[in-house]
């Protein structure tokens, strides 16, 4: 599977992760359309989450104090995500 994963550096042009223009990304997508993109460098490994049983004030406090843009909501029985709260 690792040979079908497109490394994140294809989408950054330099050390500072300068964005590529749309035409460059479109060309990369056309050339490597059969591959996956490795997004792990951009992911938060242990994000703040709330459960479907949590109260709204708890969610609000997390948003305010942690300056979050999004907050995953998990099912307490399965641990699986069921929703995403956003600003």
Describe the model.
- With 87 residues, the chain is an alpha/beta fold.
- It is built from two helices and five strands.
- The chain folds into two domains: 40 residues, no CATH class; 42 residues, no CATH class.
In short:
This protein is α/β, with parallel strands linked by helices.
Write the layout of secondary structure elements.
Elements: E1 5-6, H1 22-31, E2 36-37, E3 50-51, H2 56-66, E4 70-74, E5 81-86
Parallel strand pairs: 1-2, 3-4
Antiparallel strand pairs: 4-5
Characteristic key phrases:
87 residues; alpha/beta; three-stranded mixed sheet; two-stranded parallel sheet; 5 strands; 24% helix
The geometry reads as elongated
Number of helices: 2
Structural class: alpha/beta
Helix content: 10-25%
Distance between the termini: 36 Å
Q: Major beta sheet, specifics?
A: 3 strands, mixed
pLDDT < 50 stretches: none
Secondary structure: number of strands: 5
The domain count comes to 2
Instruction: State the strand order across the main sheet.
Output: 3-4-5
**C-alpha Rg (nearest Å):** 18 Å
């Amino acid at each position: 599977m690792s040979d079908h994963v497109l490394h994140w550096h294809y989408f950054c042009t330099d050390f500072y992760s300068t964005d590529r223009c749309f035409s460059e990304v479109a060309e990369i997508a056309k050339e490597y359309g059969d591959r996956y993109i490795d997004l792990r460098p951009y992911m938060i490994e242990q994000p703040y989450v709330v459960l479907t049983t949590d109260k709204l004030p708890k969610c609000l406090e997390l948003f305010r104090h942690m300056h979050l843009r999004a907050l995953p909501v998990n099912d307490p029985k399965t641990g699986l995500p069921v929703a995403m709260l956003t600003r």
